[in-house]
Design a protein that fits this description.
About 30% of the residues lie in helices and about 20% in strands. The protein is an alpha+beta fold. The radius of gyration is 41 Å and the shape is globular. About 30% of the residues are buried.
Length: about 220
Amino acid sequence: MTQPGHPGYQQYWGPQPPLPRKRKTGPLIPVLAIVLVVVVGGGGVLLYFALSDSGKASPRVDASQDLAKAPGGCAVLTEAEVAPYIPGRMAFKPLSGSTSSDRSEQGQCSWNNNDHYLKDKVSAAFVIVTSYVFHATREKSGVDAAKEHLKRRVPNGAEVAVQGAEDARLVALAKTGNQAKVAVRYRNVVYHLDYLNKTEGVQVQSRLTELAAIVVGKVVPSG
């Protein structure tokens, strides 16, 4: 046995320096490569679908012809403008058809002689105006919405000429000829007028289209 002090003692019995550890990099490299491929590939797929979706996006709605606002409800007509169409004393009041939303604004007003025609010994008469201002959405412009509204609400109306209107449809409501309705459109604004006048000899339809022209004139640009 080698004794202490002998040159070989330290070699066999002294503390030995630690052996360098071998790094196990073999399996790690393929795993990192797979992860990188998945990440890069996934990003490419997302980019592809994003570009595809952008290419399929709906075209921008052209709302350049839409009016931002128009007279509605009882602001459509003044007392002086409607008085010639209502015999005797007249009253007016807003009705419950007034609403507002992102898609449209609606107002409704009635002018009539209901409370006075018997005392005044005149015939009953009324004018009811319902106004619509349609706003653009992602799917359609206000003008397109107004056109669709007119087709849906007055499908059987007869086309009639009303000065200033881009579209006008008339419906006769009574066989006696004393009541009629007309719907008129200018751009994205629609007015429905319902007129009754039981005065003998009054030409309700011609007077109604005359009144409708006054209403449309409120939104048609002058000049």
